[in-house]
Amino acid sequence: MLSAAISMAALGLSGCSADPVPPAPTATVSSVAAPPGEAALPAPEALTDVLSRLADTSVPGEQKVALVQYATPDDAAALDNFGRALSDNRLLPLTFTATDLAWAPDAPGDVVATMTVSSAASPNPQPRPFVYPMRFTPTPNGWQMSRDTANQLLEMGTKTPLPTPTPPPTPMPAPPPR
Fold first, then answer.
1. Coil, strand or helix at 13
2. Where in the sequence is the signal peptide annotated (predicted)?
3. What is the DSSP letter of 106?
4. pTM higher than the cut 0.70
5. Cα–Cα distance for residue pair 62/68, rounded to 1 Å
6. Do 97 and 26 form a contact (C-beta atoms < 8 A)?
7. Is the peptide bond before 125 cis (omega within 30 degrees of 0)?
8. Fold classified for 5-31+43-154
9. How far is Cα of residue 115 from the mean position of the Cα atoms in its chain?
10. CA 144, chain centre distance (Å)
């Protein structure tokens, strides 16, 4: 089960099922001016679209693999579980907003953005928006979530096996009566 799915665990995620697809995301940007000689930052919608497709229960995990840097077909199940967890917890539809877009200082070409995730669902009490800095990397066909961000939010990557439980000590037999 997914316990940190896009840290919407902050919104209370877990489980599995399929509900309607979320509506188109909204987006804003605080600064899109590129330094001289650099390309312009991507439109906020280019980044929010990645999250929308990851949360979309109608998109199979195999197609979501292209949305995460270095993802492999082995990651498809975890990507499917993300949308199911959102659906099972009645958090869909979600609204994604990208603000404060900037070039990543330590990875040329990558973009960091503050992503705000809001649920339009009506559980009581209404979950507060979840705000998290995320990194995106360019591809020939658009943008994808960086593997580091995905590992933090989607529990992708190698899982550490649980330690083998140590059996309790064998009780000592009672001494014979004297």
1. coil
2. 1-18
3. T
4. no
5. 11
6. yes
7. yes
8. Nuclear Transport Factor 2; Chain: A, (3.10.450)
9. 11
10. 12
